[in-house]
Model the fold of this input.
Amino acid sequence: MAAHMSIRALKVRLRSRFPRLWRILIYAWWSVRIATPWTESAFFRGLRRLRREASPGAMPAEGRKKILFFATRQERDQLAMLTTLAWSLQRRGHEVLTLGCDQALTSSCNSGNFPALNPWSCRTCHLYARHTHALSDIHTEWLSELLPQGGKERACELVDAVDPERYPALEYRGYAIGRIVRHSVGHFLRTDQITAETSSVAKYRDWLISAVWLVDACELLVEKHGPDTIVLLNGLFAPESIMLEVAKRQNVRVVTWEGAYRPESNFFAHDRPTDMADPAMWPVFSEIPLTEEEDAEFDAYLSEKESGGGYLIDYFPDINKSTAAVCSEFGIDRSRKIAVLFPNITWDSTLFEKKGAFALMAEWIEASIEWFATRPEAQLVIRIHPAEVALSGADRDSVVELIEKRFPQLPSNIVIIPPGSGASSYVLMSVADCGLVYGSTTGIELGVRGVPVIVAGDVYYRGLGLSLDPKTPEEYDAALDEVMSGRVHKNDPARVEAWRRYAHYAIFLAPVPLRQIRYERVGDLPTLRYKSLTELDEGQDPNLDVVCRGIVEGTPILAASAARVLAMDKSEPSY
Done:
């Protein structure tokens, strides 16, 4: 274990101090790994072995659908997912094709972050994707093949004819590209202030240029192949968002997907970006008590999270689970009423330019500090998101710096827990009388532990009758008064039960577990659990059947275990 950790530490140090050299070495490493079947990774060996099997007979033409996987995002786990779903659909008799990126998006790709996507990362991505698609034998087209001659040059001329101040309103052939690309630009810049600097405006320009020719390329792709369904990741970022808009115009159904709370489970949505648990489905589940088995399943999940497990990203390698130690280290006074504030990172794509009680998360944090500054009898604890030190470039728009700039001298009753601290968030929840969130999933975990939750942003569980959801700064102050005065109290049995039902829905029923792919942590190499393509056939896994049926027929895509609840509800979910 010590040797493993030392190697890991060496890799981290090399990657941080010599990023270009690190990326060159990674490219060379993968070039060698895929050179022969004997040096390939377990994933590639699995693909090679599985493709030796004969596919089943084709479905009659009247029932066969054409499915396009739009896959310009090519992370290794995403390629494993794509391949598995594509093979599953082929086994059911449908026609499948893939659109991949062959380094066409070098200047505008969210696999990188400010100041630039490393070109060696781009080459490695294409190398890995090309080898995956070649071994899977799925018909693949590449983005550059759809670029008209001189398309990039014409896109540059069009964008450069526009004053940068008008970028947000820029349209191309009726597509609001100035708005569409903003999620991508904010994510790349690692800030929600995407026009604050000259260098940021230059990156905005890069995305707008790619958006112009992507509109043309996506329309050509749909016209050329006439897919019945397009499957793509997330739907918020620029290429996928443009493809989604093109599909709407062409009346082509779209299925989006994104990783969920637990490893190896995914959210799916129809004709819109994925947004975690679909709030439109919640009323179907809200009145159904959890079974004894579901209660036990949920409690086991909570226990795992409190121990630091169940995360795709290891945010807490040195977790401190001692309440006494954490309170002592940071001066948390349990004799006072305590509110714990859990901010997101400022550039969280699910919250970008969504308004709740405050237009920006920074305004909410400032308002919270100012409220508690006048109430020394209470204490505010701010747990900075650990992603600020765990994700590359995440500290560029740091909440810590935001607070220090606005409040050079914090009141004594305001406690800041830095992002690198191992202090367990669950310790903080246990001492909290009030939970404050803007868009954090932590609000759900506060709620199931009986802590009243005030939601200041436009998060997916807002407005469901679970939390306090102020619409203005004044209503936010009033909500704080309600909770901190005790008029809204902890451990209300009805509220806790409602939160538990919602949390079980959001964690176990809304997302679909797909165990065909082993992928437990970000950075792991994915492997395939299935030994034969027959394991992907209809009837072998009810969850895989739900996903394939949803892609082909447009039916709701929820965990197969949700069927019990849906069967009890007489209304039909609308999509």
Summary: The two ends are 49 Å apart (CA to CA).
